[in-house]
Amino acid sequence: MSRMTLALFTVCVIGAIILALVDRATRAPIAEQQRQEVLRALDSVLPPHTNSADQDSRTVVVGDGSQVVLYLARRGDNVVGTALAVTAPDGYSGDIDIMVGIDRGGRISGVAILSHAETPGLGDKMTTDRDWLPWFRGRSLTDTQWGVKKDGGDVDQFTGATITPRAVVGAIHRALELCASHCRY
Amino acid sequence: MSSAPSTALPAGEGLVAPAPSFSLAELGDDFRRGIWQENGVFKQMLGLCPALAVTTTAVNGLAMGLATLAVMIASSSSVSLFRNLIPANVRIPAFIVMIATFVTVVDLSMNAFAHELHKTLGLFIPLIVVNCIVLGRADAFASKRPLARAIADSVGVGVGFTLALVALGGVRELLGFGSLFGLSIFGASYPPFLIFVLPPGAFIALGLMLAAANHYGATAAKKVGN
């Protein structure tokens, strides 16, 4: 083996060993962080419950063949609500992942944004405006026109940003429809 | 830092036995040079991609700078340690593998122990691999110097990069949101000056800061000249 090959080979082997060790050390903490993140979102959108909703879920296959995880909120033995994560693919920059909690009556119990890359100061008002997401609480498929005001719906858009609210409203509407056909109590 | 005793040598006479190959004063110089004189962002205009992209707030700039600093110290040290074992014609791939290893270590550690920050910086952590300041210092400096000097240089350049990112992030956050490190400076009534938070604002802010730095530098040079 030439000296060049040996040198590169050695560097790669050492690098691989370091990465294997670091991966082993960080895998559990990373998984725990991600679980906590989901759990925090679930607790914030579901009606008051007594179980760990992230460990109480079932997966359903929806119309277009994709899988959706339904997280169940229980108080004692009763299922009091369902949460599901939906993705708005039509935001201003990239996907917006949203957790929607829905109670037994098909009314929204809470909405949380899991991740987004919307413009700071414009699109991200959906998370910084304290009144916007809570506005959805208590609304259902039948009592609300699901669209932004510009499109003839009931939902406020923000000054200078219509695309983000439109995408979010569409995704929440889709979550309600999914739940209407898949949530079982 | 006290400088090593510098014995003035008579002309024509060299050191008989160069016991340490570097002095503390040299280490100090290696460190200081990267802070301003050869600052990666403001003087060499390198590493501008992360400098422009993540500096929407001072905190983001600080986190990105510290992540880069950690990668630089680790990669410069290992490049210096192995400098005599790696043949010159495969040095670049070897350095890149080392840098990529340390970047992944930082990426995984941040994900595990600073999860929120990791979500904010996201894509830009892996991109430290292609930050030309890191490879530049590894190849141009660390691959030809003993360990201590390589570390001094990487800390200096890394701290210089961090300061540049904090300054740029601070200016953009202050003008954009009226706050600094998340603390409101101009009060709640300050209307957000969004252009400075958006990508064009990064270029404008950096341009203005460069102009100010050059003006200051030129004025100072003129004074020395007189």
How would you describe what is shown here?
The complex is a heterodimer of chains A (185) and B (226). Helix content of chain A is 36%, strand content 22%. By secondary structure, chain A is of the alpha+beta class. Chain A has one domain (44-182). Chain A has a five-stranded antiparallel β-sheet with strand order 1-2-3-4-5, with helices on both faces. Chain A is globular, with a radius of gyration of 21 Å. The termini of chain A are far apart. Chain B contains eight helices and two strands. Chain B has helices at 24-35, 48-53, 58-81, 91-113, 115-121, 132-140, 147-177, 199-225, and strands spanning 179-180, 183-184. A two-stranded antiparallel ribbon of chain B has the order 1-2. In chain B, helix 3 packs antiparallel against helix 7 (147-177) and helix 6 (132-140) runs antiparallel to helix 7. The longest helix of chain B has 31 residues, at 147-177. The model of chain B is unreliable at 1-19 (pLDDT under 50).
